[in-house]
């Protein structure tokens, strides 16, 4: 004799397992081999390639030693990336409110070269 509710519980478990398996097998469009030794850094080229500059977690604005096209952030802090020196918002050479939020545990290629950043705890 079937147990009431057992069929829907079994279906829910099977659906949840399928979703978890699908998420585990999903690959990003451009898989990048991230170095495990880095905590947070900028790279001068896209896809975290080229020369790298470690993120300074200290307070205030930090200008990069060279323009960067990508970054990785394996910290619990968020990093605001600016496309002008001295943490000025806006597109390169322009005023405006454009900035890029690099969240905790993320990596990104930027639409413009990054020139400065600020770390927010």
Summarize the structure in words.
This protein is of the alpha+beta class and 121 residues long. The protein has a domain at 39-120: Gamma-B Crystallin, domain 1 (Sandwich), CATH 2.60.20. Helix content is 17%, strand content 40%. The chain is built from one helix and six strands. The chain has one helix at residues 6-25; strands at 40-45, 49-54, 61-73, 78-82, 100-102, 106-120. A six-stranded antiparallel β-sheet has the order 2-1-3-6-4-5, with no helix packed on it. β1 (40-45) and β2 (49-54) form a beta hairpin. The longest helix has 20 residues, at 6-25. It is globular, with a radius of gyration of 21 Å.
Give the secondary structure arrangement, pairings included:
Elements: H1 6-25, E1 40-45, E2 49-54, E3 61-73, E4 78-82, E5 100-102, E6 106-120
Antiparallel strand pairs: 1-2, 1-3, 3-6, 4-5, 4-6
Work out the radius of gyration: 21 Å
What is the 3D shape?
Answer: globular
- The end-to-end span amounts to 58 Å
The DSSP helix count reads: 1
Q: Main sheet?
A: 6 strands, antiparallel
Low-confidence spans: 9-38
Oligomeric state of the chains in view? single chain
Strand order of the largest sheet: 2-1-3-6-4-5
Signal peptide: 1-26
Keywords: Signal
């Amino acid at each position: 004799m079937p147990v009431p509710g057992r069929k829907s519980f079994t279906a829910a478990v099977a659906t949840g397992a399928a979703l978890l398996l699908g998420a585990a097998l999903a690959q990003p469009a451009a898989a990048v081999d991230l170095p495990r030794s880095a905590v947070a850094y900028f790279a001068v080229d896209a896809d975290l390639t080229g020369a790298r500059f470690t993120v300074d977690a200290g307070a205030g604005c930090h200008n990069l030693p060279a323009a960067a096209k990508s970054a990785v952030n394996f910290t619990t802090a968020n990093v605001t990336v600016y496309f002008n020196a001295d943490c000025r918002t806006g597109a390169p050479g322009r005023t405006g409110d454009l900035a890029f939020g690099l969240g905790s545990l993320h990596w990104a290629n930027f639409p413009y070269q990054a020139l400065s950043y600020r770390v927010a705890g």
